[in-house]
């Protein structure tokens, strides 16, 4: 049971309804279904284990308290992500209170959109690295992004929220989400290329 | 003919397949003719794929048990019939 976090075909609406009616076991089931994704997201945004644990707890405690506010207009997980991202951003802001608020950082002019590292990848990284090694490489690449880019990428490309949902969760305009997402994707691509590029031959040998 | 910069500006929409057919065709033409953009496009696509395929690891047992304890306390404090208004 615990191996599948996003089980398809289970009746989430019924589970949420039971939880709303006060069935604690139903709520626990929702927690167990989503806690690993909430925890991962919290870690990716805060980059800190203690903060991530706080975010995890606060998210589910708040979700329990405010369950009646969940109207079922979005997926339960999307609603949960919104709570979690608020908690995570608060942590981030608190931790960096001596600096500018990261999400409000001005976005620079766009020259860095031009990719620096252009090389084909060796092969599928999934086949070259163990799951643990790959996870470490991917995490390190995410860590190196500015929070403003990291947060958008995590919500859109890892948690798979839509552009609109990402904008809403972060209180950003659609165009801000789009431009940050482009930066994030290109910067990650650039970093991963240094890791995954085909070695020992010319980058354009495939031509 | 699109410039590489124009292509990169539309890369997200191209990868997410949210473009109108005409714009998409223009970008397709560029990527077919420009090796640099082809590589950027291909490796960005692979970047997304590798992140999407990443499974979330289980929450460490101690963190999980503290979470469950905090929830149990909350549920007890509030009472099981949350909606009864009691």
Can you give a write-up of this model?
The complex is a heterodimer of chains A (207) and B (86). Chain A folds into two domains: 3-96, Rna Polymerase Sigma Factor, Chain: A (Orthogonal Bundle); 125-204, Winged helix-like DNA-binding domain superfamily/Winged helix DNA-binding domain (Arc Repressor Mutant, subunit A, Orthogonal Bundle). Helix content of chain A is 62%, strand content 0%. Chain A is built from nine helices and no strands. In chain A, helix 2 (24-46) runs antiparallel to helix 3 and helix 7 (147-158) packs across helix 8 (163-170). Chain B has 86 residues and is mainly alpha-helical. Chain B has a domain at 4-53. Chain B is built from five helices and no strands. Chain B has helices at 4-9, 11-15, 21-33, 35-52, 61-78. The longest helix of chain B is centred in the middle third of the chain and has 18 residues, at 35-52. The mean pLDDT of chain B is 88. At the A-B interface, helix 2, helix 3, helix 6 and helix 9 of A face helix 1, helix 2, helix 4 and helix 5 of B.
